[in-house]
Structures are given as structure tokens and as C-alpha cells.
Write a structure and sequence with these properties.
- By secondary structure, the protein is mainly beta.
- Helices cover 12% and strands 60% of the residues.
- The protein contains 2 helices and 13 strands.
- The longest helix has 14 residues.
């Protein structure tokens, strides 16, 4: 299990240099990647919400070959983003595509009507029929705002 300290460290390193880490451990592999959440505004119940810079969307995947044993994605914010960001009406989807980039499976998350500074979702283990890629997507108020993918290869 990845400790909260390691998650925060990876997020900070990713913010500094666009880190994508793949660490093989015997027959198992772990991949951690982060993508910045771009600044955006949206309206909720007549109020304008603003997501400033300083938030990262991190996607963690563990497994071996086409077998995914653990998958999680969520947002961490730092600096101004940690104080003022609120993600309302959010959901996180996981998609799986083949090597031709055709999506063949989607695990759609439920929409959370509450506002959170740190939306997060884990997905159940998966046995993929093909190699390709696994992606996580953050939707806020019905709009996809950021995605992060990992290639699943032999």
C-alpha cells in the first residue's frame, strides 16, 4: 500500500517535472502518474466556483500483464489550490482501450453532488482482454477536466 506521504511526494515531484513512474517489482508492476488540473470556472446553484492552479490528478495502477489488482485516482491540491478549490458534482471514470486506442470498457463512477477538495475513487480489480492503456478521467459538473493514462504492455 502506498503511504499518504509517498502519494504527496509523488504529487509534488509530478508538479515540479511531469513525473511518470513505473517501478517493476518481480512479476508485478506499479505505475503512478499525475497530470495538472488546469484552471477553470463553473457554476453551481448560481454560484461561480473557481479551480486555481496547484491541483494535480494522480492515477495509480498495480498489477501484472493484463491483470490489474489495484487502481485509484484522485486530486491533491497545494498552495492556493489547497485553500480555495472545491470540486462539486464530480465523478471519476476509468476507461480501457486497445492498442488502436479504441475504448472497449468504461467503469463510470457515480456523480457526487457534494463539494470536495480531494475527490478520489478506487476501482475494482480488472482482467483486461487486450493490451493497450488504462485511463482515469475527472469530470466536474458534467465536463471532463483532466485525464491520466498508463500503457498496459507485455
Amino acid at each position: 500500500m502506498v503511504s499518504p506521504y509517498v502519494k504527496r511526494l509523488v504529487t509534488a515531484l509530478a508538479a515540479a517535472g511531469g513525473l511518470v513512474l513505473a517501478v517493476p517489482a518481480g512479476a508485478h508492476a506499479t505505475a503512478i502518474g499525475s497530470a495538472p488540473v488546469r484552471t477553470f470556472e463553473y457554476s453551481v446553484g448560481g454560484a461561480t466556483m473557481k479551480i486555481p492552479t496547484g491541483c494535480m490528478f494522480t492515477h495509480i495502477i498495480r498489477g501484472s500483464g493484463r491483470r490489474i489488482t489495484y487502481q485509484n485516482a484522485g486530486v491533491d491540491c497545494a498552495f492556493v489550490g489547497a485553500v480555495s478549490s472545491r470540486f462539486c458534482n464530480w465523478r471519476i471514470d476509468f476507461t480501457y482501450a486497445d492498442t488502436n486506442n479504441r475504448i472497449y470498457r468504461t467503469s463510470r463512477g457515480r456523480t457526487h453532488n457534494e463539494c470536495r477538495i480531494d475527490p478520489m475513487r478506487s476501482n475494482s480489480p480488472q482482467r483486461l482482454p487486450r493490451y493497450g492503456k488504462a485511463c482515469a478521467h475527472l469530470h466536474v459538473n458534467g465536463v471532463r477536466r483532466v485525464s491520466q493514462c498508463h500503457h498496459i504492455t507485455k
